[in-house]
From TrEMBL:
Topology in the lipid bilayer: Peripheral membrane protein
Ranges where the ABC transporter domain occurs: 4-229
Compartment list: Cell membrane
Protein name stated in the entry: ABC transporter ATP-binding protein
Length: 300
């Protein structure tokens, strides 16, 4: 069942079309990623979902509610962590949690939430004294404090060190496992590939692809690459004839075959059948990076 439905969404700032006919549906219980280069329209799209921006055209429904017309209902089901978050430098973690909890009719237990997010020992710390990772955890807590059924996380791990980023990924998975649907805006490929059940790739205000991470990778022209130095001379035409072989090249004695996983198996069988040893064998799978570059024509 779709918990977020966006159809035919348009939003311009003056002459600039930020979102140009975007449609997608987020299913209950999934982590749905919105991925794209800077300025692609990701934040504008999620701001329309959150009711923070009024679409020029098109419709948005969150749990059946219009985020602008049914603002109160959407606030009860949707929690948001905004891309640029700030709080009063002197407010403490506990004061913040209590303040936000008071805004909701049925808030989560903020102490349990602080415990779950690993900031229970920071309740008396002032916001300005928190590390980047602790601030992010606090913002996730604030997004969850109203007991939402869907949470929007925008560029959550930007600026975090690799360990804090991985810890945050685990938190996002825990949130999903607790039954909350996650709409995640990111431009980190590894994050999208690891976390998202499905990804909408947005470029210049339009969705260029919408699929599972492996589905997107499967669309890339880069495919899988196997390279090796054969122990004895090899007739390259045999390799070209293998299933799904896209290209075969040789440079400095190293043979490079591009294709699919099926091609890799076929190359290995052919070599084994002819008693040829593959020295310095390497298999490189296409990644979401390759798919992203193919499908957006942009730099990550
Ligand atoms: N308030 C605004 N006024 C004018 N133009 C804006 C405004 N907000 C965004 N834009 C423009 O709209 C386009 C889409 O911006 P948006 O912030 O939605 O992209 P984004 O994909 O979230 O980018 P980023 O990854 O850099 O955060 C950009 O060209 C941006 O400059």
């Amino acid at each position: 069942m779709a918990i977020i439905e966006v159809s035919g969404l348009h939003k311009a700032y003056g002459d600039k079309k930020a979102v140009d006919d975007v449609s997608f549906a987020v299913e209950k219980g999934e982590i749905f990623g919105i991925l794209g280069p800077n300025g692609a329209g990701k934040t504008t799209t999620v701001e329309c979902v959150e009711g923070l921006r009024r679409p020029d055209r098109g419709s948005v429904l969150v749990a059946g509610y219009d985020p602008i017309a049914d603002r109160g209902s959407v606030t009860r089901v949707l929690g948001a962590q905004l891309q640029e978050n700030e709080l009063q430098p002197k407010i403490t973690v506990q004061e913040t949690l209590e303040l936000y909890a008071a805004c909701y009719p049925d808030p989560a237990d903020w102490r349990a939430l602080a415990e779950r997010l690993g900031i229970a020992d920071k309740l008396r710390a002032r916001f300005a004294k928190l590390s980047g990772g602790q601030k992010q955890r606090l913002f996730i807590a604030l997004a969850l404090i109203g007991n939402p059924t869907v949470v929007v996380l925008d560029e959550l791990t930007t600026g975090l060190d690799p360990r804090a980023r991985r810890d945050t990924w685990q938190l996002i998975e825990d949130i999903r496992d607790s039954g909350v649907t996650v709409l995640l805006v990111t431009h980190f490929m590894e994050e999208a590939q690891r976390l998202c059940d499905r990804i909408a790739l947005i470029d210049k205000g339009r969705i260029t692809a919408l699929d599972t991470p492996s589905g997107l990778i499967g669309r890339t022209a880069s495919g899988t690459e196997i390279s090796f130095k054969p122990s004895t001379a090899l007739d390259l035409r045999q390799l070209t004839a293998l299933p799904a072989a896209a290209s075969v090249t040789e440079k400095g004695g190293r043979v490079v075959v591009k294709g699919t996983d099926e091609t890799v198996s076929a190359v290995l069988s052919l070599l084994a059948g002819q008693g040829i040893t593959a020295h310095q064998l390497r298999v490189v799978e296409a990644s979401l990076d390759d798919a992203y570059l193919d499908l957006t024509g942009a730099d990550a």
